[in-house]
Write a structure and sequence with these properties.
By secondary structure, the chain is mainly alpha-helical. It has helices at about 5-15, 20, 30-50, 55-70, 70-95, 100-130, 135-155, 160-180; strands at about 130, 190.
Length: about 190
Amino acid sequence: MYPNIPWIVYISPIIWVFPAFKQYREKFFLFFLIIAVGDPIGLTIIYILKNNIGPIQPLIVSFLLVISVINTEKLKNNWFVIIIVLSTIFMIPIIYGHSNAYYIVIILFHLMIFYKILILFIKKYLETRNIDLFYVLIMLYILLNIFKVNGLVFQFENAKLYHFVTTVFQTAIGIYFSLIKESSPKNLIRINTL
C-alpha cells in the first residue's frame, strides 16, 4: 500500500516559498526564488489548462537554475557564449520531441548545478577547513532531483513511493533553508585535522 501522496505535492511547493524570503540578499537568493515560483506556476498552468504540461516546466526551471548559479562576473563577461550553449542544450528535447530527451537534458542541467556547488564546497573547505552544510544540502537536493527524474526515465516499479520519499526529504531540506541563511555560522562544521 502506497502513501497518499497528493498532500506532499501541495505542501512541498508551499514550504519552498520560504527559503526565497530567508535567503534574500544572499548569494543563492535567485536559485531559491526560481524554486519558489517554479512549482506554483507549473501547478497553476496545469489547473488552468486542465492538462499536464509534462516535462516542459521542469526543463525551464532547470535551465533557469543553471543560470542562477553561474558567477555574475562570468555571466557578464561570457553571457553570449553561456546563453548560446545553454539554449542549444535546452532546444535538443524540443527538436527531438521525446519525453526522455527532456529528462536527459534536465539531468544534464542538474549535473551542471551539482558540479558548480561541489566546486564552491571544495573551495570553502580548502579555505576554512569547515564543511559547509548549506552546500551539502543543496547538493543533496540536486541529487534527489536527479533521482526523481531517473525514476521517470526508467519507470521504477515503485516510482510513486520513490517520488514520495524523495519529496519528503526535499521538503525537509526546504525547511532547513527556511530557517538558516547561507551566511550563518550554523552551517559550518569544523573538521579537526592532525
